[in-house]
Amino acid sequence: QYSLIKDVVSSLKRHRMHEQQFTHHPLLVLSNFGFQQIQVKLMASMFQNMFPSINVHRVNVNSIKRCLLVSYDAETQLLDFRHYSVKVVPVGVSKGLKKLLQEKFPNMSRLEDISELL
């Protein structure tokens, strides 16, 4: 079973797709691949070798734009693929300052001073 990208995009309320999303490889997450069977180990090795390894001490978090989740169900012997878009957003700041940090310029016509926004 699969879904076409146009069907996925049309079902989303706010879809985020941009060219920079595909300039870097995704962060690969393997779930339920800890079984000792040789075919499961082979599948895990294949997925790990499809993408370059990430050095967690030197990786720039802002460069990670996608996450690929591959989950193995041992009972049905099926693989589930999920492809996520990752966005880094500031946390713990006011709504107005968050918009400025994300380079979204808010409507300041109702404000008398910039301090009201912050």
UniProtKB/TrEMBL annotation:
<dbReference type="GO" id="GO:0005730">
    <property type="term" value="C:nucleolus"/>
</dbReference>
<dbReference type="GO" id="GO:0030687">
    <property type="term" value="C:preribosome, large subunit precursor"/>
</dbReference>
<dbReference type="Pfam" id="PF04427">
    <property type="entry name" value="Brix"/>
</dbReference>
<dbReference type="InterPro" id="IPR007109">
    <property type="entry name" value="Brix"/>
</dbReference>
<feature type="domain" description="Brix">
    <location>
        <begin position="1"/>
        <end position="118"/>
    </location>
</feature>
<dbReference type="GO" id="GO:0006364">
    <property type="term" value="P:rRNA processing"/>
</dbReference>
<dbReference type="GO" id="GO:0019843">
    <property type="term" value="F:rRNA binding"/>
</dbReference>
<protein>
    <recommendedName>
        <fullName>Brix domain-containing protein</fullName>
    </recommendedName>
</protein>
<dbReference type="GO" id="GO:0000027">
    <property type="term" value="P:ribosomal large subunit assembly"/>
</dbReference>
<dbReference type="InterPro" id="IPR045112">
    <property type="entry name" value="PPAN-like"/>
</dbReference>
